[in-house]
Amino acid sequence: MLGVALRSRTLHMTSERQKRPTDAQLSILTVLWESGPATVRQVHEGLPAQVRRGYTTTLKLMQIMTAQGLLSRDESQRSHIYSARRAEADTQDRLLEDLVDKAFRGSAARLALRALSQRRASSQELAEIRALLDELERAEGQKK
Questions:
Q1: Percent of the chain with pLDDT over 70
Q2: pTM of the model
Q3: How far apart are CA 65 and CA 132, in angstroms?
Q4: Cα-trace Rg, the chain
Q5: DSSP 37-82
Q6: Contacts of 137 (CB under 8 A, 6+ apart)
Q7: Is the dihedral of CA 12, 92, 4, 102 positive or negative?
Q8: Three-state DSSP state, 104
Q9: CB under 8 Å to 6, separation ≥6 — which residues?
Q10: Please, how many CA atoms are within 13 Å of residue 113, restricted to the half-sphere of its CB?
Q11: Are 135 and 9 in contact (CB under 8 A)?
Q12: CB 76 within 8 A of CB 83
């Protein structure tokens, strides 16, 4: 987790811009990230009940996502197998960059402060945050 913050921002700078997924598309991606490659039926059954619509709606969404480059489809078997084209962390990075730019005027600190003031962090999460801050301070000190 700590290394995520120090990765280069090449995803943001690439010429191939990933389309930002809708909430419904994120639900489908979440199922695929958790389960790995799956058929439409498996994805549909893995969706939370509160977001699950009809099977054909799931199928249509996944076809649209494939056309948009969010999913890949293996047609070598009778039942097509779908996979997320981007890793969960890459998609999160992209969504987070958009959120920071649009809602927090480019300030990651404002985002972090707002998030921590809205939801209680566990002691383990606070330890991870402290470790990340320490790592970032060390990296900044090495630049000087």
A1: 87
A2: 0.75
A3: 34
A4: 18
A5: SB-HHHHHHHS-TTT---HHHHHHHHHHHHHHTSEEEE-SSSS-EE
A6: none
A7: positive
A8: coil
A9: 135, 136, 139
A10: 5
A11: no
A12: no
The one-letter code for the residue type at 90 is D
Residue 30: other Cβ atoms inside 10 A = 19
Asked if the model's pLDDT at residue 8 lies above 70, the reply is no
- 65: exposed, middle or buried (C-beta count within 10 Å: 0-12, 13-18, 19+)? buried
How far is the C-alpha of 136 from the C-alpha of 109, rounded, in Å? 13
Q: Taking a C-beta distance cutoff of 8 angstroms, is the pair 43, 59 a contact?
A: no
Amino acid identity of 25?
Answer: Q
Q: Which residue has the higher pLDDT, 108 or 7?
A: 108
* Encoded tokens for 89: 């962390």
